[in-house]
Design goal:
The complex is a heterodimer of chains A (195) and B (201). Chain A has 195 residues and is mostly helical. Chain A has one domain. Chain A contains 9 helices and no strands. The radius of gyration of chain A is 17 Å and the shape is globular. Chain A starts with a helix and ends in a 9-residue tail after the last helix. In chain B, helix 6 (124-154) crosses helix 8 (176-200). The model of chain B has no long low-confidence stretch (mean pLDDT 81). Chain B has one domain. Chain B has a two-stranded antiparallel ribbon. Classes of the chains: A mainly alpha (195), B mainly alpha (201). Chains A and B meet through helix 2, helix 4, helix 7 and helix 9 of A and helix 3 and helix 8 of B.
Chain lengths: 195, 201
């Protein structure tokens, strides 16, 4: 596959947003988006971890999994890499910047089980991206996720007070909002085509 | 009511993982525009949930508390790899269509949720039952979503034409947003009916 990394970067933010077109990372997306400030923190953490793990997993896949022909174990290896990165990052941030730890730290354990992180790694491996492409794909997908969660949190602040049928209040309304957001993002798809 | 029927009823209806707890939507909604793929995916999730629940429950006394989550993830990954290998051997075209989503069963929150919430504290047999029924409740919702999407999006069910020739397929049903709308409507129905049941009591 030969896609310009910059195009891939913008495409993964807008046209093929990991959340709105691939449904990845929904669990934390719905539960955290109640609050704008934590959404922003989690979005930042996801972007960071996603970029690091995608690049790291690219190396692991190319130089460990393929030479040792461990393809059938790749899920376990990828998830261990992700868990290890999250653990190391948590310790590093705690040491280096306590103020950042307060905003980011509590979200880091949540990220290991965020489907979007593993999803991006698997897509990267399946589509045979090069190193530069993987870097931009990871970064772009993270930023796309960040954008989506901040947008949803801002919208939810308004819809929470809106008069809605009792059964639809809360999660139901959130899902409809996400659906409308996904439709809006489809509007971008005329610009770039990657998949 | 015996404990088994109680668990089954809770997992299938009253505490349905998707509609009430809003868990585990991540990995599977993406394949709901085709009923056959959804059915296979849902079966995979159900089996993995049941078996990993059984395993976690069997080994719960030997797993140190500190590395509990990690061990659970590895157990889940082990079963997912088996599902992946079986799919690739027997249903290669489905495996290709599902792509990375089989691997993403690992991070499905339901499986981890059941292992943490139920298997940690209960005996193996009932944990297996709990996992299987939780998976069944999940499959039920996904199959409803998939049948609506495939019927309106392609006019087919299990790739067989159902709708009359004059029917124009809804393009939106093939795309991502429709899944969100359908889940929203299902949540609405489930919540309203539970409110009504509450009033009757």
């Amino acid at each position: 596959m030969n896609i310009n990394p910059f195009i891939l970067f913008f495409a993964s933010i807008l046209t093929s947003n990991i959340l709105l077109t691939n449904f990845l990372g929904m669990c934390s997306y719905i539960s955290i988006s109640k609050d704008l400030k934590s959404s922003n923190g989690l979005g930042m953490a996801v972007t960071f971890v996603m970029t690091v793990t995608t690049v790291l997993n690219w190396f692991v896949y190319r130089y460990v999994i393929v030479p040792l022909s461990l393809e059938y174990l790749r899920y376990i290896i990828f998830i261990i890499v992700i868990a290890a990165v999250v653990q190391v990052l948590e310790m590093l941030i705690d040491r280096l910047s306590p103020s950042l730890y307060i905003t980011l730290g509590i979200f880091l354990p949540l990220i290991t089980v965020n489907c979007a992180i593993l999803g991006v790694t698997l897509f990267m491996q399946l589509r045979n991206y090069s190193l530069i492409q993987s870097l931009f794909y990871g970064l772009g997908s993270g930023m796309g996720w960040w954008l989506a969660i901040v947008l949803l949190a801002a919208i939810r602040k308004r819809t929470d007070n809106a008069p809605a049928p009792v059964g639809l209040k809360g999660t139901g309304l959130t899902f409809i909002t996400i659906g409308i957001m996904a439709m809006a993002f489809i509007g971008f798809s005329g610009m770039i085509q990657v998949q | 009511m015996s404990e088994f029927t109680k668990i089954a009823k809770n997992n299938l209806i009253r505490e349905n993982q998707i509609l009430v707890q809003v868990l585990g939507i991540c990995s599977t909604l993406a394949v709901t525009n085709n009923l056959r793929n959804t059915a296979i995916m849902a079966t995979g999730v159900t089996l993995v949930t049941g078996l990993s629940n059984l395993t976690v429950s069997l080994f719960k006394d030997y797993i140190p508390r500190k590395v509990r989550m990690m061990v659970e993830t590895l157990i889940i990954a082990f079963y997912v790899i088996i599902v992946d290998i079986v799919l690739r051997a027997y249903l290669p075209d489905v495996s290709k269509a599902l792509g990375p989503y089989v691997g993403l069963i690992i991070t499905n929150c339901i499986i981890m949720g059941r292992a943490e919430a139920f298997a940690q504290a209960n005996n193996p047999v009932i944990s297996l039952w709990d996992g299987l029924t939780a998976g069944a409740g999940y499959s039920l919702v996904l199959l409803i979503v998939a049948s609506i999407r495939e019927l309106l999006g392609f006019g087919t069910l299990f790739n067989i034409h159902i709708m009359p020739k004059s029917f124009t397929p809804f393009t939106i049903m093939v795309m991502a947003p429709s899944a969100f709308f359908i889940v929203a409507i299902l949540i609405w129905i489930a919540k309203s009916s539970s409110f009504k049941a509450g009033e009757k009591k």
